[in-house]
Amino acid sequence: MFKKQGWSPAANPAIKAEILNEDLLKEAYKVGRYSPTNSECPPAPEIIPFWIQNNVEILGKYSDRLFDKYLIPHHLEPQLFLSMYKGFRDLILSCPDGIDSPFCLSSKEVIAVSKSIFMTLAKEKGVHLEFD
């Protein structure tokens, strides 16, 4: 109805919420654990990059929401992605192990491959990520 002269959405970005570091890391964990990802990785080497990319696209939307919604201290960004990874790892560990299936990698193998998902997500945000 009544617009202020010179007002535009780009000139007024959304205000980001402040959140305790522990709560932010819990939110990141939930992204990895409960997002609609594909936790079963096929053993075919030529398909693994597509599996990784599909999960990057899914989790990327959720990590973008975290970055859009909250003020994230720069020093906490690597921990944020590690928390997402831990949630995803726990999701994989909660599923039956595919070790006896010719169609899926074992849980241990999927966890190892899944690190690439979170390395890619972090790199897209300009965050250096290292795993122990």
Question: How does this model look, in words?
Answer:
This protein is mainly alpha-helical and 132 residues long. It has one domain (40-132). 55% of the residues lie in helices and 0% in strands. The chain is built from four helices and no strands. The chain has helices at residues 21-34, 48-69, 77-94, 107-124. Helix 1 (21-34) packs parallel to helix 3 and helix 3 runs antiparallel to helix 4 (107-124). The longest helix is centred in the middle third of the chain and has 22 residues, at 48-69. The radius of gyration is 18 Å and the shape is elongated. The termini are far apart. The mean pLDDT is 87.
Write the layout of secondary structure elements.
Layout: H1 21-34, H2 48-69, H3 77-94, H4 107-124
Helix pairs in contact: 1-2, 1-3, 2-4, 3-4
Number of domains: 1
The secondary-structure element order is HHHH
Low-confidence stretches: none
Q: Beta-strand level of the residues, as a percent range? A: under 5%
Question: Could you describe the largest sheet, including whether it forms a barrel?
Answer: none
Mean pLDDT: 87
- Termini Cα gap: 55 Å
Keywords:
132 residues; mainly alpha; 4 helices; 0% strand; 55% helix; single chain
Briefly say what this structure is.
This protein has 132 residues and is mainly alpha-helical. Helix content is 55%, strand content 0%.
